[in-house]
Amino acid sequence: MPRPNLQEQRRAELLPALARAFATDGYAGTTTAGLAAATDLRENQLYRLWPSKKAMFLAVVDHLYDQHVAWWEAQLADRPPDAAIAHILEEEGRHRGESGLHRITFAGLSEARDPEIRAALAGMYERFHAYIVDVLTRRATNRTGAAKKRKANKADVEQASLTAWSLIALGSLTNIARELDLFPVKTQERLFTQVGGALIDPKPPH
Amino acid sequence: MPRPNLQEQRRAELLPALARAFATDGYAGTTTAGLAAATDLRENQLYRLWPSKKAMFLAVVDHLYDQHVAWWEAQLADRPPDAAIAHILEEEGRHRGESGLHRITFAGLSEARDPEIRAALAGMYERFHAYIVDVLTRRATNRTGAAKKRKANKADVEQASLTAWSLIALGSLTNIARELDLFPVKTQERLFTQVGGALIDPKPPH
DNA sequence: ACGTTTTGTAAGTTATCACTTACAGTCTGT
DNA sequence: ACAGACTGTAAGTGATAACTTACAAAACGT
Description:
The structure is a homodimer of 206-residue chains.
Chain A: H1 7-25, H2 32-39, H3 43-49, H4 53-76, H5 81-98, H6 101-110, H7 115-143, H8 154-180, H9 185-200
Helix pairs in contact in A: 1-2, 1-4, 1-6, 4-5, 4-7, 5-8, 5-9, 7-8, 8-9
The structure holds a DNA duplex (30 and 30 nucleotides).
């Protein structure tokens, strides 16, 4: 049994370069030749690691989603819930721009006819939404006093769900705006802190 | 001088079919053969009306934007500003789904590297934003009393600008959600009426 | 009816696409 | 050292892309 199988590791190493390529040119606009150039490999070497261009794209989607959630986790760790959320609202815009996640999303949305791509994107949104709802309700129950330890009731969760979707909406527009240079970073920050802040905290301290 | 030139009219007639094709398959995913099939013409007949596939796409972007604004105008006409806005918030989601505007936007965003496509999209967003700001400030000044007829001041306009972007954000997410079946229509309605309503009207009547 | 122009139909061109095959090197456990 | 799997390089495959060319058939003003 000669030579150990390092394919899994190789895949992981190549994903950032693939992500960059897909983010730059979209799904249909990215060629396998381009992917090979981006990874400094030949096309058939990529095809030894994934069965198709689509598989490469789906792997990229998963990779970026994991990366994004990991970033959230890092922001939440070692901070009290309120401070963590405020911090995320401030930093989310900046971070989103750096990862290529939003461009991959646009690319995927253009291919939403394809059931696998569609499912991958939908799963990503749903998991992210669930995650935010969890963060929001954890914070809400903490606030009402750990002593009571009341379970988040149905109305609370429903409200948190709407709020979570709204935050995701702000994030989506911010991505579009960044892509098209619609408004300066300052406006983007105000969107997140002012509007986003108002959303999660109906009575602003003024 | 034989046969009048009806090209302009022909172009206008064909745009809806072209829009449908681009909306279905994205920009790069749509082939000129597909466009020909969608319009029931041959490829070279299309090329007699537009110089390239890109020109066809840009024409579609303009067409859908004009259509969307016309719809807004129709909603605003013959309604007092407040009622008109409420009505738009209720109907916007439904209407957006029917026109293919959002899918065209996704398609374009995947090609945002192309300066012409990028400019067309950016222009569309900016014009739409300006339009909403105008609607919002008209309403605000109306409210403070037509008698005073005070000019909208800078802070008002800035606030309206943020609100307008937020509404556009909700619209964008709604489109994504519709595309990916993220949540039911009811949630979508609540997003617009509850969150959207709160955005344009910080103190809800309760 | 005629001359000019637009319209319709078909075929072709060149490039590039996703994906494959062939084969020579190279590494590893034994 | 050597078998057997992995790695690298090159070339090739058929399909299909955007876009053209060629030419016959209408349509219109005169």
